[in-house]
Amino acid sequence: MVSEKYLNKVFLSADVYAVCTQHALTTEKQEIMGLLIGEVDEDTYESHITACVILHRSDKQPDRVEISPEQLCTASMHAEQLAKKLEQPMRVLGWYHSHPHITVWPSHVDLRTQWMYQRMDPLFVGLIFSVFQNDSQNRSNHLQITCFQASQGKSELERREVELVIKPSPLQKYNLEGIANLPRILVQEEVDCHTDKESDIQDELANLHNDSFQTLAIVDIVSKVSKPLCEDLEERLKAVKARTAALKKLKNSFTSNTD
């Protein structure tokens, strides 16, 4: 039996929100996924998510994602390393995935997955990012996010919404590394997918055809993910330098007035 213990609130750091959003927007054809790391207050039943791990998809599907035990183990090891580095408790608190072109609400598969993890940790939480939803009135796409747990209803599992608060925070180094590694992970997924298909094909023309599609996929990642990401980070750097210069100027003005 799962303990009747549920989360009251989830605090999500703004930089983790940025990483998850960036990850969700990398593809509108398949769902993406990752794990959430932080610490939980056992007294108030509040989770504080301050890091995440982007997971490598071994099987790309438009309507579902799965987390392997190996990936969960790797994320747990990452949380332990962060705990030592930051000298504070850190562990895997939940998971996130995307819903491209569909509503933000969890499916029956999502609820079963969530319920399975709550059997191991009653305070485990799920986040869903709904992306590429068309707004016909404004002619634009909008993003939605939901924070949920599963609860046992009379006949089936039900969604239990959890209050989500996005907490302002600077872009931490370990989350910056996660964003920087995103293109590499996407490219490796394409290489692995191509290798699996090629191993069953002996025809050279078919292999040449598949190689061409792999090249196109990698070029697409570079143009739509790597390049915009670099431009965004460069703009962030300019903003930080400008802010630093303004603060130094303000400090010098205070110093001169004191003298």
Shape: globular
The parts where pLDDT drops under 50 for at least 5 residues are none
- The top level CATH class name of the largest domain: Alpha Beta
What's the CATH architecture name of the largest domain?
Answer: 3-Layer(aba) Sandwich
Determine the fraction of residues in helical runs and give it as a percent range: 40-55%
* Structure summary, number of beta strands: 8
The chain-level mean pLDDT equals 86
Q: What is the count of DSSP helices, taking H or I runs of 4+ residues?
A: 5
Backbone CA Rg = 21 Å
Euclidean distance between termini CA atoms: 70 Å
Question: Please, how many domains?
Answer: 2
Give the strand order of the largest sheet, numbering strands 1, 2, ... along the chain. Answer: 7-6-5-4-2-3-1-8
The ordered H/E elements are EHEEHEHEEEEHH
The biggest sheet amounts to: 8 strands, mixed
CATH topology of the largest domain: Cytidine Deaminase, domain 2
The class by helix and strand makeup works out as: alpha/beta
What amount of the residues lies in strands? 25-35%
> Which superfamily, in CATH terms, is the homologous superfamily of the largest domain?
Cytidine Deaminase, domain 2
Family: Belongs to the peptidase M67A family. BRCC36 subfamily.
Domain MPN: 10-154
Keywords: Hydrolase, Metal-binding, Metalloprotease, Protease, Ubl conjugation pathway, Zinc
InterPro entries: BRCC36_C, JAMM/MPN+_dom, JAMM_MPN+_peptidase_M67A, MPN, MPN_BRCC36
